[in-house]
């Protein structure tokens, strides 16, 4: 049995799963079921202790791309396989989000906003896409699509990952030394890494200081990637042009947090790329069939690596 937890969209998911998998028994939280019958779950942020109820749980499907919250829990049985969504309609949204930030930078909308507030008519110098250096931290399902979309539009795209990668249209690098070289050569830094122990505060005061003072940061990965206090300090000191932030150390961002009112900050409430239920269900159904046939699945999480 597949047990579903997505309180906001329970009905929609229930219907989509039943249509896609007519032969599979499906139950939706908080439906009472024989706990031992549940072998699979599809979830987004279920309450603490949720998984402990199911002694025969084999597979957990995450209804999102990031699994940091799942991996921090203590109720997931060791033998359970965790499978996340790969793209499932998110890569295009992420490319749009990043492009919005890059255009904000390139067309100097932050400067014109400030000028407008002062009723100042002052054309800025033209900057062409080919002269804008975009660095993508994270070359997975999302980062790769974002990078290739920007490269197709003429931007210079560099990418950085954990292991060496070769991706068409993206100059790929990896490792600390490469990051040291890359950050000073970056105009727009796009962060789309997962939250792991290794990526926590990757952008600390020292590394933020490696960026040119005119650079912009877009963070759509996870809040933990950036040391928020260090970021605020850099913005205060004018060492960054602006930050477009979709994710935060604590979500929702506290009402009195100084980031809300900072003149160099644009905030969105974790919406850079939302799960598209139809695509999510199609992908999970395909993975369920692959598991049944002994074929490889997409999005199997490496619990040790943390993503
Ligand atoms: P993915 O396919 O797993 O890709 C992760 C990328 O990060 C890989 O290129 C990986 O390197 C790299 N990476 C991981 N640890 C690293 C490290 N220590 N140093 C350098 N690179 C490292 O993930 P995805 O599907 O692209 O999603 C990425 C993240 O986006 C998710 O984990 C989630 O946090 C976030 N997200 C946010 C939203 C939103 O709305 N804001 C929506 C969806 C996802 P390798 O290639 O070497 O493995
Ligand atoms: C959203 O942040 C996701 O990880 O899917």
Q: What is the CATH first-level class name of the largest domain?
A: Alpha Beta
Structural shape: elongated
Radius of gyration: 21 Å
**DSSP summary, beta strand count:** 12
| Helix/strand order, N-terminal first | EHEEEHEHHEHEEHEHEHEEH
Structural class: alpha/beta
At CATH's second level, what is the architecture of the largest domain? 3-Layer(aba) Sandwich
Task: Let me know the CATH homologous superfamily of the largest domain.
Answer: NAD(P)-binding Rossmann-like Domain
Provide a descriptive summary of the structure in words.
This protein has 307 residues and is of the alpha/beta class. It folds into two domains: 2-88 and 275-293, 3-Layer(aba) Sandwich (Rossmann fold), CATH 3.40.50; 90-267, Rossmann fold. It has helices at 10-20, 68-71, 90-106, 109-117, 141-152, 176-182, 205-208, 228-236, 277-293; strands at residues 2-5, 26-28, 40-43, 59-62, 81-83, 133-137, 156-161, 171-174, 188-191, 216-219, 242-245, 265-267. The strands form two sheets. Strands 8-7-6-9-10-11-12 form a seven-stranded parallel sheet, with helices on both faces. Helix 1 (10-20) packs across helix 9 and helix 3 crosses helix 5. The longest helix has 17 residues, at 90-106. It is elongated, with a radius of gyration of 21 Å. Bound molecules: NADP nicotinamide-adenine-dinucleotide phosphate and glyoxylic acid (GLV).
Give short descriptive properties of this protein:
elongated; seven-stranded parallel beta sheet; binds NADP nicotinamide-adenine-dinucleotide phosphate; Rossmann fold; binds glyoxylic acid; 307 residues; alpha/beta; five-stranded parallel beta sheet
